[in-house]
Specification:
Layout: H1 5-14, H2 16-23, E1 30-34, H3 37-44, H4 76-82, H5 87-99, E2 104-107, E3 126-127, H6 130-138, H7 141-149, E4 157-162, E5 171-177, E6 180-186, H8 195-215, E7 224-232, E8 235-243, H9 256-259, E9 277-278, H10 299-306, H11 312-329
Parallel strand pairs: 6-9
Antiparallel strand pairs: 1-4, 2-3, 2-4, 5-6, 5-7, 7-8
InterPro entries: CDC123
GO cellular component, one term: cytoplasm
Family: Belongs to the CDC123 family.
C-alpha cells in the first residue's frame, strides 16, 4: 500500500512506542521490543513454521496448541531443520512476559492480532509464552499490514501490555479534530450498555478532563483518535492513539462524512471547545451484529460461508460457535 507523507507522519506519531513514555502514568504497564530485520522478514512471510525455540520443552505452556502438532502427515524432522532460530530475540520476549506477571496483551505498532485468535487453544489474545506470541503474529494479516508500513526502517515493534481483564462497556474511542475533542463512542458499538445513559455526564467529564490535562497540548499532531478505559468515576486509562483517517480507524457510532464535515463547529474559545458528542444506544434493541465476531474464524472460512448455502443445522452450529467466541473474547482486548 502506498502511503502519503502526511499519513506516514500520523502513523509514526500514533505508534505506541513513540508516545508511551510521555503518558505512562496514565497507561497500563507496557514494554516495547524492536523487531530485528531477520525476525521482521520471518513475520512477513506467509509460510507457517515456528522458530526452533518454540520446540523446547519449557518454551510453550501445556494449553498452547501448536500448529501441526496433531497432523499425521507432518515431517517433524524436516520441519525442525527448516525452522528459523531467533534465540536472543525470543529470550527478550520471555523476560518481558515474566516482568509483566506471566501474561500479556500484544500488538504491533498500531494493531493487535485480533484476526488470529482462532489459532490459539484458548481463543484469546492473552499470551503466556513464545508460542502464543509467534502464532498470533504469524497468523495475523492485520499485523502483517502494520509491519509492511515501515518495512524499510528500524521502526517495527512488538508491544507487550500487562494483561488486564476489561469489561467492554468501559472502553471508549475519542475523536480529535483541530486539537478539539469532538466525539466519543463506545468501542463495543453497537451493543447496548445500560449504565451509559445514567453516567453520560460523568463519562464525558472524566474523558474531557484527561484530554485537557494530559493530551490536548502535548500530543504532536492536530487530528487523531485515542482509546480509553473508564472503569470507575474519575479514573480513565489511556489505551492507544490512532490516525484521524478512515483507512486506519473505525468510526464506530459515528461516520467519517460527519466527522470530517462542516456540521461540526470547531470552537477556538477554550471555554466553548471540547464539548464532545457522546453517541450510544439509549435502549436495548436486542443483539446487534458485531464485526469483531468475525475474528473468531480464519478469513478463508468466512469467505467460504459467504459463498455457500448452509443448512439450518450448519447455521445453528455456526451461531453457537460465534456466541462462544463472543463470550470468550469479551475481556481479551485491553
Amino acid at each position: 500500500m502506498l502511503i502519503q507523507q502526511k499519513e506516514l507522519s500520523d502513523l509514526i506519531n500514533c505508534s505506541y512506542h513513540n508516545w508511551y513514555d510521555d503518558y505512562k502514568k496514565n497507561c497500563i504497564k507496557s514494554f516495547s521490543l524492536e523487531i530485528p530485520a531477520d525476525v521482521l522478514n520471518y513475520l512477513k512471510q506467509d509460510y507457517f513454521v515456528l522458530p526452533k525455540e518454540c520446540n523446547l520443552s519449557d518454551a510453550c505452556s501445556s494449553n498452547t496448541q501448536k500448529i501441526g502438532e496433531t497432523s499425521s502427515f507432518s515431517d517433524d524432522e524436516a520441519e525442525e531443520e527448516s525452522a528459523p532460530e531467533f534465540r536472543e530475540f525470543s529470550d527478550k520476549i520471555t523476560k518481558i512476559i515474566d516482568k509483566l506477571g506471566g501474561s500479556a496483551f500484544i500488538k504491533t505498532n498500531w494493531h493487535s492480532p485480533k484476526d488470529s485468535v482462532w489459532i490459539t487453544a484458548g481463543q484469546t489474545l492473552r499470551v503466556k509464552d513464545l508460542c502464543d506470541v509467534y502464532q498470533l503474529l504469524k497468523a495475523s494479516s492485520i499485523c502483517k499490514e502494520d509491519l509492511n508500513h515501515v518495512s524499510e526502517s528500524n521502526f517495527c515493534h512488538i508491544i507487550f501490555k500487562k494483561w488486564k481483564d476489561v469489561h467492554p462497556g468501559t472502553e471508549f474511542r475519542c475523536f480529535v479534530r483541530n486539537r478539539n475533542l469532538i466525539g466519543i463512542s463506545p468501542r463495543d458499538w453497537p451493543q447496548y450498555h445500560e449504565h451509559f445513559k445514567a453516567q453520560k455526564r460523568d463519562i464525558i467529564k472524566d474523558i474531557v478532563s484527561l484530554f485537557k490535562e494530559k493530551i490536548k497540548d502535548k500530543f504532536p499532531i492536530d487530528n487523531y483518535c485515542f482509546d480509553v478505559i473508564r472503569e470507575t468515576k474519575d479514573h480513565v486509562i489511556l489505551i492507544d492513539f490512532s490516525p484521524f483517517n478512515e483507512k486506519y480507524t473505525a468510526p464506530l457510532a459515528f461516520d467519517w462524512n460527519f466527522l470530517l464535515g462542516d456540521e461540526i463547529i470547531i470552537e477556538n474559545d477554550d471555554e466553548e471547545s471540547d464539548n464532545p458528542e457522546f453517541r450510544y444506544l439509549d435502549k436495548d434493541v436486542g443483539i446487534q451484529p458485531n464485526p469483531r465476531n468475525n475474528y473468531g474464524f480464519p478469513q478463508e472460512m468466512i469467505e467460504m460461508f459467504k459463498s455457500s448455502t448452509l443448512s439450518d443445522d450448519q447455521i445453528e452450529e455456526l451461531n453457537r460457535i460465534t456466541l462462544e467466541q463472543t463470550e470468550a473474547g469479551s475481556s481479551q482486548e485491553n
